[in-house]
Amino acid sequence: MVKNLSEQHSLLSNWIGELRNTEIQGDRMRFRRNLERIGEVMAYEISKVLPCEDREIGTPLGISVCKVLSRQPVLATILRAGLPLHQGMLNYFDRADNAFISAYRKHHGDGSFEIELEYLSCPSLEDRILIISDPMLATGASLVKTIHMLKEEGTPAAIHVVSAIACTVGIEYVRREQPDVTIWCGAIDEELTAKGYIVPGLGDAGDLAFGEKTQQ
Description:
It is a single chain. By secondary structure, the protein is an alpha/beta fold. The chain has a single domain (2-48, 73-210), classed as Rossmann fold. The chain has helices at residues 11-20, 28-47, 83-92, 141-151, 168-177, 205-210; strands at residues 2-4, 52-59, 62-69, 74-79, 97-107, 113-121, 129-133, 136-137, 158-167, 181-189, 191-192, 198-199. A hairpin with a 5-residue loop joins strand 5 and strand 6 (113-121).
């Protein structure tokens, strides 16, 4: 299932526009904050479909029956680009457990690349609700490999993926390899370059948030 939040205009569309805008991208703090705000909106939208229960809450004047989450999710992100989006989700799911994965593209001289996973810090995921944040869903290769790695820590009850911008190629690949995943995105672009970058996209989210890196 794919949830494209740009199908209906909201403030999220404005923040996506700022992420793409080359005249604004030079402000790293603003770039990170926009990703964080998108994460907050995504967390709110996802919360609507999570299991809840009625609970009696004592107030100074009596008892109120309130709907609350039945259980807390596990928030996972792919280092380093996913950190601002993850923080936005953590602002709302502030009692959630967390998981962190190191994944990067190892480039070769002929322009090809492969996905390298080197680090995982994660609680047990058995029967947990797992929410993975990755700002750019391009080819989908790193995301699918990440999901495989996370499933070694237990079988989640449900998996949600959050991206600011996704490409149709990546969406189709994830749905083919992991059909039980729900994808939440702020916008969907149609084109992918030979090097695996989304067009028009926004560029390299990790570099724009934290500075340029040397290629491995």
